[in-house]
């Protein structure tokens, strides 16, 4: 089945503990439950990595979004038991701004999303599923991003 990216949804709030992670988990799991033919990807940008834990993606020092954004690896995509695909987070995301051009100003924080989109577009998937995934924009119908409690 051909997949066509329909939406990228980033769940953002400056405050922690308001349900960002639970919202991403519920939306992604609900869509897959309603239509098993859709491919849904979740990306964990929160350094707490709770989304990764909820989807059962083990903590891995190398295969995570931090290393992909720093151009040290491809975008690692894992398939979870419930059919959702996940890019695991990293506690190192706490300091991602140090590895991006500029500093932690609002303008620079917004660049991290530009870096993320560029990373997703330019890097091939580091396919951990064995399904021949190539690029997240070509291989998924929905992408949900769990953001940390800030604009970065």
UniProtKB/TrEMBL annotation:
This is AAA domain-containing protein. Residues 7-152 form the AAA domain. Pfam families: AAA_31. CDD domains: ParAB_family. InterPro entries: AAA_dom (IPR025669), DNA_Partitioning_ATPase (IPR050678), P-loop_NTPase (IPR027417). Signal peptide: none annotated.
């Amino acid at each position: 089945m051909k997949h066509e990216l329909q939406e990228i949804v980033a769940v953002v709030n400056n405050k922690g503990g308001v349900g960002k992670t639970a919202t991403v988990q519920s939306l992604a799991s609900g869509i897959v439950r309603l239509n098993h033919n859709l491919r849904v990807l979740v990306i964990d940008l929160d350094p707490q990595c709770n989304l990764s834990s909820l989807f059962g993606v083990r903590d891995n020092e190398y295969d995570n979004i931090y290393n992909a954004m720093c151009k040290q690896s491809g975008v690692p995509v894992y398939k979870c038991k419930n059919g959702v695909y996940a890019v695991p987070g990293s506690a190192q995301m706490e300091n991602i701004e140090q590895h991006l051009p500029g500093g932690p100003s609002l303008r620079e924080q917004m660049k991290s999303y530009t870096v993320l989109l560029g990373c997703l577009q330019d890097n091939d998937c580091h396919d951990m599923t064995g399904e021949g995934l190539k690029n997240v924009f070509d291989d998924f119908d929905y992408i949900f991003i769990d953001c940390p409690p800030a604009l970065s």
